[in-house]
């Protein structure tokens, strides 16, 4: 097991990382913290194998953290700014993840770390210092990026009617509002619980719980008509017969 620590000054970003870490059997979450000094102390005490580290933080930037941590742990940088990529690789980071981070991209970074941290060197150990420990967020919701850098919106799965793909953006339709966020439909397909969510078209994911009627290749959710492509037709009908 690779002992992981997530460090970010934004709580929603930490919740996403904690969720992703909890989904991989070869990773274990030591904790999450918004304090890079606290994180550095844990690294120096030998409590951490892999740090998922934001670059832009108060008190201590991610690049400063890298220099102080040295070779005591491996680091995956997480940031919304691609211009820091070169600095990261010059400091021998495992990977560089751009926010919003998809689970698929996170998984690739974790596999790279696994190749670099095999066997007993990555075995779990108890904490020797207090840390803001957080397991995966409560089941039943996700956070999506808002219109500004530091804004994340909580979306309850139970509220989602359907999701429409708009190139590199998605439109999440709820009963009383619509949320547009920078993410692809493919990324959401890989992270949403299935069922009740099902991709039924290259441009649509639906919640099976919200379907009012299915008629041939058309799904009705409230007053919205959603097409079903031939690729997903058989799977849709198999699932609705099982419900």
UniProtKB/TrEMBL annotation:
Signal peptide from the UniProt entry: none
Keywords tagged on the record: Phosphoprotein
Pfam families hit by this protein: LytTR (PF04397), Response_reg (PF00072)
Domain HTH LytTR-type span(s) in chain numbering: 144-242
Highest taxon listed in the record's lineage: Bacteria
Residue positions, PTM 4-aspartylphosphate: 54
Domain Response regulatory: 3-114
InterPro entries (UniProt xref): CheY-like_superfamily, LytR-like, LytTR_DNA-bd_dom, Sig_transdc_resp-reg_receiver
SUPFAM superfamilies reported for this sequence: CheY-like
Protein name per Swiss-Prot or TrEMBL: Response regulator transcription factor
Protein's organism: Hymenobacter guriensis
């Amino acid at each position: 097991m690779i002992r992981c620590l997530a460090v970010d000054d934004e709580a929603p970003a930490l919740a996403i990382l904690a969720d992703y870490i909890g989904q991989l059997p070869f990773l274990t979450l030591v904790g999450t913290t918004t304090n890079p000094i606290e994180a550095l102390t844990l690294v120096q005490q030998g409590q951490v194998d892999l740090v998922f580290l934001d670059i832009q933080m108060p008190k201590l930037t991610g690049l400063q953290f890298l220099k102080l941590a040295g070779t005591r742990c491996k680091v995956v940088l997480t940031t919304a700014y691609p211009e820091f990529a070169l600095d990261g690789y010059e400091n021998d980071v495992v990977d560089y993840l751009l926010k919003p981070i998809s689970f698929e991209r996170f998984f690739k970074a974790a596999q790279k770390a696994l190749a670099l941290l095999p066997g007993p060197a990555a075995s779990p150990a108890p904490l020797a210092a207090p840390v803001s420990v957080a397991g995966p967020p409560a089941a039943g919701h996700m956070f999506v990026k808002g219109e500004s850098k530091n804004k994340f919106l909580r979306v309850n799965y139970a509220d989602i009617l359907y999701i429409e793909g708009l190139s590199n953006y998605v439109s999440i339709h709820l009963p009383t509002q619509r949320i547009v966020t920078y993410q692809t439909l493919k990324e959401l397909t890989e992270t949403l619980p299935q069922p009740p969510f099902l991709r039924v078209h290259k441009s649509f994911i639906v919640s099976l719980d919200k379907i009012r009627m299915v008629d041939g290749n058309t799904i009705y959710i409230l007053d919205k008509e959603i097409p079903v492509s031939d690729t997903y037709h058989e799977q849709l009908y198999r699932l609705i017969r099982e419900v």
